[in-house]
Design a protein that fits this description.
alpha/beta; five-stranded parallel beta sheet; four-stranded mixed beta sheet; 9 strands
Length: 189
């Protein structure tokens, strides 16, 4: 199964995915599945799903048709490698998770039709909580405004997701998702 996580900036997507890998067997973050031109954060030193590259390297991936999808968001390129998606198809016994931009959700669901099960989860949180999290992450006020400026658009896509959660509490959100995935897995047996 492939689990798509989307949501507004700092809604907890990566934190939740990391929790799920610790609590659910055969559950993995689809590592080294994306390229980006953004500067690595301190937290990227461990378990980053990104391959960090410069703009020219990224544009070569585009030119050589090696990306399933890509976006230019918050001043940087982000893109999903086709080779990573093949890993999901080749290992249906596992649950793979990935943070995907709201524009990639529908496209990925369509891509996996007939190839494997896909579910999508949208995480949100109140803006004041997002600002607090972004500040704790070390973002300056200008970067916070840039990251939150896309929130309204992202929230307008919530209705396209299988599950929408207001993530105010990491443990509670993790449990809701575990219950949701358990139900889906039992229905597919």
């Amino acid at each position: 199964m492939f689990v798509i996580f989307s949501g507004v900036s700092s809604s907890g997507k990566n934190t939740i995915m990391n929790n799920l890998t610790k609590t659910r067997p055969n559950t993995f973050i689809l590592d080294k599945s994306s390229g980006t031109t953004r500067v690595p954060r301190e937290s990227d030193k461990e378990n980053s799903t990104y391959i960090f590259m410069n703009k020219e390297e990224f544009e070569n991936l585009i030119k050589n048709d090696q990306l399933f999808e890509y976006e230019f968001v918050h001043g940087n390129y982000y893109g999903l490698l086709k080779s990573a998606l093949q890993r999901v198809i080749d290992n249906p016994q596992n649950v793979y998770m990935r943070d995907v931009d709201v524009n990639g959700n529908t496209k990925l669901k369509k891509y996996f039709e007939g190839k494997g099960k896909v579910v999508s989860i949208f995480l949100d949180a109140p803006d004041e909580e997002l600002v607090k999290r972004l500040r704790a992450r070390g973002e300056d006020e200008d970067r916070i405004k840039v990251r939150l400026s896309r929130g309204e658009y992202e929230r307008s896509k919530k209705n396209e997701y299988d599950l929408v959660i207001d993530n105010r509490d990491i443990e509670a959100t993790t449990q809701i998702i575990c219950d949701f995935l358990d139900k889906i897995e039992s229905e597919n047996k």
